[in-house]
Amino acid sequence: MSFISAQDLSLGYDKTVVAENLNFEVREGDYLCIVGENGSGKSTLMKTMLGLQTPMGGQILFGDGLKKNEIGYLPQQTLAQRDFPASVEEIVLSGCQSHMGLRPFYTEKERKLARTNMERMDICDLKKRCYRELSGGQQQRVLLARALCATTKILLLDEPVSGLDPKVTNEMYELINSLNKSGVTIIMVSHDIMAAVKYASHILHVGKTIFFGTKDEYIASDMGKLFVNMGGERA
Q1: Using one digit for the tens of pLDDT, what is the confidence trace for 156-195?
Q2: Catalytic residues
Q3: What's the CATH architecture for 28-54+153-235?
């Protein structure tokens, strides 16, 4: 059974359709990369899966025991968010809020979970530092730790390496891959075709033509051959 499945999904805003006829599924342990041209609806799809936006048609179904509050999310950051004046520990802890209901205080169990995820991201030495003083790569590790406090099942990552230098980008990809190998299901929006075909188990290509299948099926398809060759030329 699928964690998430889309059936004849149409996406858009202000009565403008940006993607339609989307059909795909994400199973436990998958690593799905969502790729496509700018404006093709990748981030809109991510928001729709999170329930932040209503589909214009079709539906998204949740199964295999997955609840909406069990999805960890790492959004694209705005400049204002990068300048957020809170400590690393406070931001990581805030990932527990989806499970707290109306309770205003963190329990020791939640504080232990935050410590565990800071250890996983190798940022324990930063826990008292102000978030806005960190480098871009450090900030992304903090946000990954925060997302992991919300879930042990599935992470939605929207362009997680945007603005990072090549070394830190590679470190972030390897970190995400290790999370997937540890059992966390990954759905990642990316403009990086070469990283998609290196790490993903499945690829959803959105645009005028839609493709969904395994990485190998994508590489063998006409669309995959075109975009992989373009990505290789840019690399």
Answers
A1: 999 999 889 999 999 999 999 999 999 999 999 998 999 9
A2: 159
A3: 3-Layer(aba) Sandwich (3.40)
